[in-house]
Specification:
Layout: H1 4-14, E1 20-21, H2 28-36, E2 42-43, H3 46-52, H4 62-74, E3 80-83, H5 92-104, E4 109-112, H6 126-143, E5 148-152, H7 163-175, E6 180-182, H8 189-199, E7 204-207, H9 216-221, E8 226-228, H10 232-251, H11 263-278
Parallel strand pairs: 1-8, 2-3, 3-4, 4-5, 5-6, 6-7, 7-8
Helix pairs in contact: 5-6, 6-7, 7-8
Length: 280
Amino acid sequence: MPNVAEKRAAFRALHERGCFVIPNPWDIASARWLQGMGFKALASTSAGFAWSQCLPDNAVTREMVLTHLRELVENTDIPINADFEGGFADEPSGVAESVALAVDAGVAGLSIEDSRRDKDNPVYSLEEGAARVKAAREAIDRNGGDTLLVGRAENFLVGRPDLDDTIARLNAYSAAGADCLYAPGISKPEQIRAVVQAVAPKPVNLLIGTPMGLTVKDAEALGVRRISVGGSLARSAWGGFLRAAKMIAEEGRFDAFADAAPGMEINRFFYKVSKSRSGA
């Protein structure tokens, strides 16, 4: 199994050329399955993990997230990027403290958001956001400088779809030390291309959480370096569960089980995983 330094080096190499998908598992089992499918890196999902704990998104504690990240890192052989929300603090010093703990958990990368969870003032000012990214950068440099830092501009997710402001924020986060830039919510080719060109040569992460009509090749042609899916795999799993349960409860029918994964296939996969983890 690769060590943390090797995982981080492999993760940085993925960002140097081409376009790769970094899907988002919500527990050890989904992470192991995605690794088994050949994905080269994975990213946690704050929403998917929260739902697995019977909580809404953004309601998990820092300690819960750190435990989750350690579990993902320790049970996979590929790099893990942390959806680290806003760093679990308002002040830059608090962000730095949280980031140091995430680095210690062994993640290969982590993202810091600029949303405030305040409907009347949903994002930090550009200056505040940049100061928070700078604090994260300094914490990484002190505690594990090879961890990749992702700066996130949340405008499009919080009802402020201002592309010019988004680009200004991403450039400020780049200058503050972010290695990769991310504006979740942009979806139109012209928006994606504008962001890619504005922050070049640094790589851009694109969120594809709904059917946008874009393939991996399309995204690569626009200059995107990596694609994540957020909580959409978790939502897809919940969708299958809810459809089947609703059909039973409301119609007394079990037809939705036709789409269920074969139990023997699942058992075979996790039998192999358990044998490999035990060294047998």
